[in-house]
Design brief:
474 residues; alpha+beta; four-stranded antiparallel beta sheet; 21 helices; 12 strands; 53% helix; globular
Length: 474
């Protein structure tokens, strides 16, 4: 039995509305209205020809699932400054009016709040739009209904923002293509993709599948909601703002046209969101493909290809895709971590092991453990034992430097070294050392006092240990 059916049974035992304290007041009241107007019809059929798609979006269970998703994702508030923690109280007082505005076409999304996220390229930023939390809930509800409609229409070579598909699946598909001899890759960079989506083209594509005009109109209003920058409103006549739950699905709907064209032409490719890699057997074929597909993207989808960032290269020639790089061994494509991804990791480790940030040992250990687990789980496909051994050695030296600085006084240093098994005379000698923290951290004396086993016993995790656990290496 589904979770939504479980909730309905809780709310409506033997056909009688029952208030359940575990769910918000607005959801209980919306479910009661649904019971009174639809009797037992809590589940509408999902069909691309459905004329009742808006009613399915507004189904109390769907809206409640969207609410839980928004609450779970947390995130900052929009232009109205409402936080996710304030959302339940607002809905308790206003959900009926919100529902009515959506049904009558009077709902108007608020402008999104514009924030700038620094890119890897120095001085460049990614523009992120943060919708109001109630708009995020409505967008999520729309996405939950439209996704099952579009999933069967999407390409098997598309992996980004799709259920039960991951970056690892995309990488393994690249390996499959390359092992079949497609070793030349065409990388086409879509310039400011989310900011330059042609809204008319997107609405046309939506209308080909979605027959409930009210839903099309609702999506169009989200696209046209505008942005607020430093308190000033700016219209959005193109683009789909990054940051909203609906934007990834809309991006896939538009770029599915590219996928279908690539499939029609028989190209091997992988697409993850707007990051598309086309693989060919020869450089000449790759060059022809670059030219013809660029023409399709710009003249049919009305997007702009950044020719400076687009390139053709052998897949093993330090190509970066989803943070990975590739190399060939015995005619087989294998994975490694791209050098830029290594540098990003080191920057995060430097923050966690900075000697002057005033963090406690427990907090540092927690932050490092979270980083190690997440990073290794993502890059587990790569061959990186020697790389992780180097990173572990460098990271442990930084941890030893933290201890050495926090011991501060000569007496404290000597006592700590003695307790860690260092001869008392040697401990006092090093406690009086005037060498810099980093030099002492790399010394044999501190490597003995805080050796790898002791650091592990103190709760400091290892990249290599985690990698061998994840990969099942003994």
């Amino acid at each position: 039995m589904s979770a939504s059916n479980d909730r309905q049974l809780q709310l409506f035992d033997e056909g009688q509305p029952q208030r359940v304290e575990a769910v918000p007041q607005w959801y209980a009241e919306a479910s009661r209205r649904a019971w009174n107007t639809k009797a037992d019809e809590f589940s509408l059929k999902t069909s691309k020809q459905s004329k009742d798609l808006l009613e399915e979006i507004l189904d109390p269970d769907n809206m409640y699932d969207a609410y839980l998703k928004v609450i779970g994702n947390k995130g900052a508030g929009g232009v109205d400054n409402m936080t996710v923690s304030e959302m339940e109280g607002w809905l308790d007082n206003n959900y009926s009016a919100l529902e009515n505005r959506l049904l009558t076409g009077k709902y108007r999304p608020m402008p999104v709040r514009r924030v700038e996220i620094p890119k890897e390229e120095k001085g460049k930023v990614r523009l992120l739009g943060i919708p109001a939390v109630t708009d995020r809930m409505v967008q999520q509800a729309v996405s939950q209904v439209l996704s099952p409609i579009y999933e069967p229409l999407f390409s098997s070579d598309s992996f980004g923002f799709r259920p039960n598909r991951s970056a690892h699946d995309a990488l393994l598909r690249i390996k499959e293509h390359a092992d079949n001899g497609n070793v030349w890759c065409v990388s086409l960079d879509l310039e400011r993709f989310f900011d330059t989506v042609n809204q008319s083209k997107l609405i046309q594509l939506l209308s080909n599948t979605i027959k409930d005009g009210r839903v099309i109109s609702l999506i169009h209003r989200f696209l046209m909601a505008g942005v607020e920058i430093n308190g000033e409103f700016e219209p959005t006549e193109e683009g789909t703002p990054q940051g909203g739950p609906l934007s990834p699905l809309l991006a896939n709907i538009l770029l599915n046209e590219l996928d279908k064209e690539l499939e029609r032409r028989g190209h091997a490719f992988v697409r993850y969101a707007d990051d598309c890699l086309i693989l060919k057997k020869t450089r000449k074929a790759a060059e022809r493909t670059r030219d013809t597909i660029t023409d399709f993207i710009e003249n049919k989808l009305f997007l702009k290809v950044n020719r400076e960032k687009s390139f053709i290269a052998l897949i093993s020639d330090n190509v970066k895709y989803l943070g990975y790089a590739f190399y060939r061994y015995d005619k087989e494509l294998r994975f490694r971590v791209h050098p830029k991804s290594v540098e990003k990791l080191k920057a995060k480790v430097r923050t966690i092991t900075a000697r002057s940030n005033g963090w406690s040992y427990d907090y540092r250990r927690s932050r490092l453990k979270s980083l190690v687990n997440g990073w290794v789980n993502y890059f587990k496909l790569a061959d990186m034992k020697s790389l992780l051994a180097e990173i572990d050695s460098w990271c442990r030296r930084r941890i030893r430097a933290v201890y050495w600085k926090q011991w501060k006084r000569v007496k404290t240093k000597a006592k700590a070294l003695t307790q860690l098994g260092i001869n008392i005379n040697l401990a006092w000698q090093w406690a009086n050392s005037r060498k810099a923290y980093w030099r002492v951290a790399g010394s044999g004396i501190l490597a003995r006092a805080l050796n790898n086993a002791k650091l592990t016993g103190l709760g400091w995790v290892s990249f290599l240990d985690r990698f061998e656990l994840v990969r099942g290496i003994t």
